[in-house]
Amino acid sequence: MSQHVAINIKTQAYHSMLGAHYTLHDCTAGYTHLTDEERAATRVLVTAGFRGATGAEMDELPNLALICCVGTGYEGIDVQAALARGIRVSHGAGVNAGAVADHAMALLLSAVRAIPHQDRLTRSGAWNYTETPRPLVSRKKMGIFGMGGIGAALARRAAAFDIEVSYHSRTPKTDLPYAYVASLRELAEASDYLVACVPGGPSTQHAVNAEVLEALGPKGYFFNVGRGSVVDTAALIAALQSGTIKGAGLDVFETEPDVPAELCALENVVLTPHMAGNAPEVQEMAADLIRENITAFNEGRALVSPVPEMRALTPAI
Q1: Is 227 a catalytic residue?
Q2: Total domains, the chain
Q3: pLDDT of residue 130
């Protein structure tokens, strides 16, 4: 009998790749359309960090036993509610690290070298006789906030650009060759580029605030490929408007998909619609990992990529 799987995200690639192997129920608009039999048969839910699942949503599927998150971040899943119900949770740890690191470097190059502006200028028929020279990207210092898989991949790419890397994270990574900085403010003060690669949640809420941006300084650039909640948006807009920092590149926003009009009006910020990790290769890897986790679950084995809160639990959970 085919495994019944609910999915509450819109990305059609996952619907197609998982639908080829399971009886897939599209729950992007909720669960009310499911019959009682479908609810009872559905033991797996596929979601994403920005969408997640609340305890009330888990209750919509009475026999739910596994939640699979397509990406690394899973802040939208109420893990404690899942634990209380005996539901196991996996995530796509590391599958999108390369794509997000690539995109972070693309934002950096675009912002520092003003590529969007130069593109518009060239298309208008103008040339560079009166353009202000843009600074070098290389021979600078990058501070990475969050040295997980994405941070480590970004550090390797930055090194290839002759950029000196240091970082701040919850704990030092003794296996990596980069300098650890004890506080985010100190990291910003020592950096030309500050890049946030951390997940969302209470521990990182508005970690990049007015004080951190002031420490980054008038020649500094801020980039965010983690979660929008990591930065105080009002403080960032004020810093960009006043020249407290030179510029920014953002792939994530606190109120996404709504982007503040003040950000859209600024020439010194490059904006993309939360698509850093969106690549066909990443989607294929994420779908494969979900299938591996479902297989492990069905066979009573430990999950291949459990979220950290699940790692200390017995395989029975």
Answers
A1: yes
A2: 2
A3: 76
pLDDT at res. 316 = 45
In this structure, the answer to whether residues 179 and 244 fall within a common structural domain is yes
In a domain, 22, yes or no: yes
Catalytic pick among 75, 164, 256, 262 = 256
pTM for the model stands at 0.89
Q: Which of 25, 60, 227, 254 is catalytic?
A: 227
Q: Please say if 206 is a catalytic residue.
A: no
Res 312: pLDDT:
63
DSSP, res 225: -
Give CA–CA dist 21/281, Å, rounded.
Answer: 19
Asked if 23 and 110 sit in the same domain, the reply is no
Which stretches in the chain have pLDDT values below 50?
314-317
Range of 170's domain?
97-271
**Does the residue 43 lie in any domain?**
yes
Q: Say which CATH number the domain at 288 has.
A: 3.40.50.720
| DSSP codes, 97-155 | HHHHHHHHHHHHHHHHTTHHHHHHHHHTT--STTPPPPPPSSS-EEEEE--SHHHHHHH
Whether residue 316 lies inside any domain: the answer is: no
The predicted pLDDT at position 1 comes to: 54
Q: How far apart are CA 15 and CA 245, in angstroms?
A: 42
**Catalytic residue at 274?**
yes
Asked if residue 257 has a cis previous peptide bond (ω within 30° of 0), the answer is yes
Each residue of 155-187: pLDDT tens digit? 999 999 999 999 999 999 999 999 999 999 999
pLDDT for 313 equals: 61
80 shares its domain with 102: no
The Cα 213–Cα 225 span in angstroms is 16
Q: Are residues 146 and 179 in the same domain?
A: yes
Q: Which of 274, 291, 292, 309 is catalytic?
A: 274
